[in-house]
UniProtKB/TrEMBL annotation:
Gene3D superfamilies the UniProt entry points to: 2.60.40.2030
Keywords: Signal
Positions in coiled-coil regions: none
Record's signal peptide: 1-18
CDD domains per record: HmuY (cd12105)
Signal keyword on record: yes
Pfam families, alphabetized: HmuY
Organism name: Spirosoma endophyticum
This protein's name: HmuY protein
Length: 463
């Protein structure tokens, strides 16, 4: 009898132990909160997108209520929101299977403000199973701000390692703006030179013809042309713009003031990062006086072409054009309003003998054309937490858009964010931030295509 009891006890113990062992630990609370507690909207900013983020995607649609509190500015006449507020309340819904919802604040045209006006937003409620996080209040100031630092998720959208978006982050303004990589085809430089860039984020490639009349170019001119930069051929590097961003090394040379010198180019719009293949295009670019460009473009088999006029705007590094829309579109924010860009794009690697073109996901470029510089620091010299204003004098800032590049993460071996390094970014105004990457893939607790960053102000620029 004792033996039977003992056996029963052991089996019961094993059963209970196994049940405990196999049960999953409870998930942490799913919090909803703003990306930051403060955001700026200076005089040049017409519209602000404000995001509410969840800790993780929700299984069900979650209604969220946000209270709107204007100070010194009137709702309806001087600013509006999309969706519209009712009784100073915004009713939003985070869709099922999503981890965020956003709304827009839009200023009225010809609005003159003194900079002291603000709009406060407070998350007042969220339906179960979501609860309110710590950053449940956000203040939009109608002036430039200098952030003390925060954490941001760079939303690459769907696609994982082939995420569909590029994301531009403005550290001082606590802002990250996502733009579809395939939304544009050519960028037209707003500086003194007349330069045109291809879309490296889609792996676009181009080659010059000897002809300078678009109507004389037919499908016969493409016979034998190789515009493939995904075949690991060193020759492919000649078909893409310089991967370091050197504008003197673009495939399309400086646009000549003499029209006859500007040749027709055949462009493969690229399939990098999962972009769907699209028809090749024929293009020709001319100068439009001293302040702009004239783009001529058409499909290879088309006998007529379309024309787009592009005017330089010194507020931006480039003006962008889409062949799909036949018009200029917004891609990069104003050059003073972004510091780093997270994206995928063409780079180069070695095959053991030669440099070859290679599409890299998760690259981070700094805005060198906008005056941003940066440095990479190893934690063996100084840790992220310890880095302070006293360290700035011994930090070597570089005007190199690839300072961060793909150095910040590992996709082989120990996959994830490299924890042995961080970055120091000096924006165009002179504000200095330390920046570290927190996660970018499931192996380090993140999500591929939506890297998380953390940054802190080290030194504010002198006024």
């Amino acid at each position: 009898m004792k033996r039977i009891f003992s056996l029963f006890f052991v089996l019961a113990f094993v059963s209970v132990f196994s049940a405990c062992k196999e049960s999953d630990p409870p998930l942490p609370d799913n919090l909803v909160q703003f990306e930051s507690a403060e955001q700026g909207a200076d005089a040049a900013t017409k519209e602000v997108t404000i995001k509410l983020k969840l800790t993780r995607a929700t299984d069900v649609a979650v209604p969220v209520v946000v209270q709107v509190t204007p100070t010194g500015i009137a709702y309806g006449t001087q600013f509006t929101t999309t969706p519209a507020a009712t009784g100073n309340l915004l009713n939003l819904t985070i869709p099922a299977a999503s981890s965020e919802v956003s709304f827009k604040l839009t200023k009225a045209d010809n609005l003159f403000l003194n900079g002291s006006e603000t709009v406060g937003f407070t998350i007042t409620s969220a339906a179960s199973p979501v609860i309110l996080g710590t950053t449940k209040q956000l203040t939009v100031k109608f002036t430039s701000i200098v952030s003390d630092g925060t954490a941001l998720t760079l939303d690459g959208g769907t696609g994982g390692s082939s995420a569909i978006n590029s994301v531009f982050a403005d550290l001082s303004n606590n802002e990250a703006i996502a733009v579809k990589r395939a939304a544009w085809d050519l960028g037209f430089y707003s500086g003194t030179d007349f330069r045109v860039i291809l879309n490296n984020t889609t792996g676009a490639a181009a080659i010059a013809l000897t002809k300078n009349d678009l109507t004389q170019v037919t499908a016969a001119d493409t016979v034998g042309l190789v515009l493939n930069v995904s075949n690991f051929d060193p020759a492919g590097l000649k078909l893409i713009d310089d991967v370091s961003g050197d504008l003197t090394k673009t495939v399309i040379p400086s646009i000549s003031a003499t029209d006859a010198d500007n040749k027709v180019f055949i462009i493969n719009r690229g399939t990098g990062g999962g972009v769907a293949a699209r028809a090749w295009m024929k293009v020709r670019v001319l100068r439009n006086g001293t302040t702009g460009y004239t783009l001529q473009y058409a499909g290879i088999k088309e006998t007529t072409f379309k024309t787009v006029s592009i005017t330089k705007d010194a507020t931006y590094n480039f003006q962008f054009v889409s062949f799909d829309t036949g018009a200029t579109i917004n891609v990069e924010p104003a050059k003073a309003r972004w510091d780093i860009e997270w994206t995928g794009g063409m780079n180069k690697t070695s095959d053991g003998t030669n440099d070859i073109p290679y599409y890299f996901a998760d690259q981070v470029f700094i805005n060198t054309l906008g005056g941003v510089t940066a440095a990479e620091l190893l934690t063996s010299a100084v840790t992220y937490d310890a880095y302070a204003e006293s360290n700035i004098a011994t930090t070597t800032f570089k005007n190199d858009r690839m300072v961060i590049g793909s150095n910040w993460r590992a996709t082989t071996g120990t996959v994830g964010v490299k924890t042995d390094r961080f970055y120091v970014v000096k924006d165009a105004t002179g504000n200095i931030y330390k920046l570290k990457f927190v996660s970018f893939t499931s192996q380090d607790g993140g999500e591929r295509g939506k890297p998380k960053i953390e940054f802190k102000l080290v030194k504010k620029a002198a006024v």
